[in-house]
Amino acid sequence: MLAALRSPSRLRVEVLAGLVVALALIPEAISFSIIAGVDPRVGLFASFTMAVSISFLGGRPAMISAATGAVALVIAPVMRDHGFDYLIATVMLGGLLQIAMGVLGVARLMRFIPRSVMVGFVNSLAILIFVAQLPHLIRVPWLVYPLVAAGIAIMVFLPKITKVVPAPLVAILAVTLVVVATSATVPTVGDEGELPDSLPALFWPTVPWTLDTLRIIAPYAVGVALVGLLESLMTAKLVDDVTDTHSDKTREAWGQGASNVITGFFGGMGGCAMIGQTMINVKASGARTRISTFLAGVFLLILVVGLGDLVGTIPMAALVAVMVMVSVGTLDWHSIHPSTLKRMPKSETLVMLSTVLVVVLTHNLAIGVVAGVLIAMVLFARRVAHFTSVAEVAHPDDGTKVYAVTGELFFASSNDLVYQFDYAGDPAHVVIDLTNSHIWDASTVATLDAITTKYARYGKTVEIIGLNPASAERHHHLTGNLNAEH
C-alpha cells in the first residue's frame, strides 16, 4: 500500500477502481436491503462500514466486502418475525462467531476444497451475476438494449486503445451522458430505492439480553457466520489466483467478523465479501491494494449522501453492462471447453456441475460449495476403495497360507475386506501381510478383528505382519476393544 501511495500511476488505478466499485455497490446494496426487508439505508450504510473496516482488518488486499444477498437471505426471517433490533443483534453475534472461528483456525480448512469445487464456484458465480441482470433487461424501454450494448462495446474495445482510465468507469459516464443529453426515459439508480441524506449513526439494539433472545437469534447468527465466512474465504482464494499472490485467510476470517460487529454498531445489515464487485475491482479495474477497498466505501458514502441526486440519474443500463462483462470475465471458459471436458475425469466434471447446479437452484454460493465438497468426498472415497486388493502370495507349507493386502485401508475400502478370505478352505495358519497397505481408522481394525474371529470359529489362527509404525500403533491400541461382530 505504501508503494502505491508513492506511485502516481498505481494510485490513480486504485482511486478510479474504488470509484467504479462504489457506483456498482449502490443498486446491489439497495436490492439486498429489499431482500432482507429493511430500509435501503441499512444496506448502503452496511456496505460503507464493511468496505472501510475490512480495508484495515482483512487479510486479502483489494477484496470488497459489503452487504450481500447471501447474508440478506439468512437474516430476512429475523426481520420479518422479530424486527430490526433483533436483526442487528443477529448480525453482531454472527460477527463474534466469525471472530471465534478465525481465532480457532477454521480458515485452514480451505485447503480441503477441491479444485473442481472451486471451478464450479467460479462458474456458478458468473451465472448468478448474469441472472441478476435479467430483471433490468426484461419489460424495459427498447432504448435500454442499445445502451447496454454501447457500454459493453466500450469495455471491450477501450482497453485495446488505452488503460489509463478503467473501461467500466468510462462506460458508466458515457452511457449516463447520453441519457442525460437526450433526456431519454430509462430506469435509473434512483428508481431502485430512496438514497439516504444523512450519515450513519451509532446504534445499539434494544433487545432483552436473555437466553430466550439467544435462542431466537443464535441459529440465524450461525448461518450468517458460516455463509459469510465461506463466501469470503472462497472469494479470497479466487483473488489469490487472479493476482498470483497469497493472502492471510485466518486474518480475513476474524476481520470479516470484526467488520460485521462494527457494521451492527452502525445499524447495518451485515455482509461479507462481494464477488462481483471484487472482480470489478481486481480484474476489470486492476486494483491490488487496500486503498481501492477503503475508497470504495468512502466514495459510496459521498455519492449516496452528498451526491444522491446526481447518482440517482445514472441509468441502470450502464451498471448492467458492467456486470455482464464481469460475468463474462469471471466464467472459467477453459473448464467448459469440449476438449477440456473430454480429458477431465468424469468424477471431476460431476463435482463441478453439481456445485453449479446447487448454487443456481438455491442462489446460495455457500450451500453449493458444501454440496460440492461432500460429493467430491464421496466420489473420492468410492474411487480409493477400489484400489484395495487381496491376493494369495505364498503357501510355504500345507498348514500355512499367506495373503498380501495392497492399498489404503479405511471405512470405505475395509468393509469389503472381510469377504476376501476363504475361511472354511484355508489351512490352520493364515498370515495377512500388510506391508503394502496402511490402516487409517478404527473401522479397519474392527474388520481385521472380525476376520480373526471368523477364522477362530474354524479353529484357525491369524497372524498380521508388515504393519508400518503408525498402523501398528493404531492396531495395538484398538484391537480387541472393538465389537468384531459388527
From TrEMBL:
Organism: Kribbella deserti
Membrane topology: Multi-pass membrane protein
Keyword annotations: Membrane, Transmembrane, Transmembrane helix
Entry protein name: SulP family inorganic anion transporter
UniProt keyword Lipid biosynthesis present: no
Residue span(s) of domain STAS: 390-486
Transmembrane segments: 41-57, 86-110, 117-134, 140-158, 170-189, 209-230, 291-308, 314-331, 351-380
InterPro entries xref list: Membrane-Transporter-like, SLC26A/SulP_dom, STAS_dom, STAS_dom_sf
Signal peptide: none
Keyword Cell membrane among UniProt keywords: no
CDD domains registered for this protein in UniProt: STAS_SulP_like_sulfate_transporter
UniProt-annotated location(s): Membrane
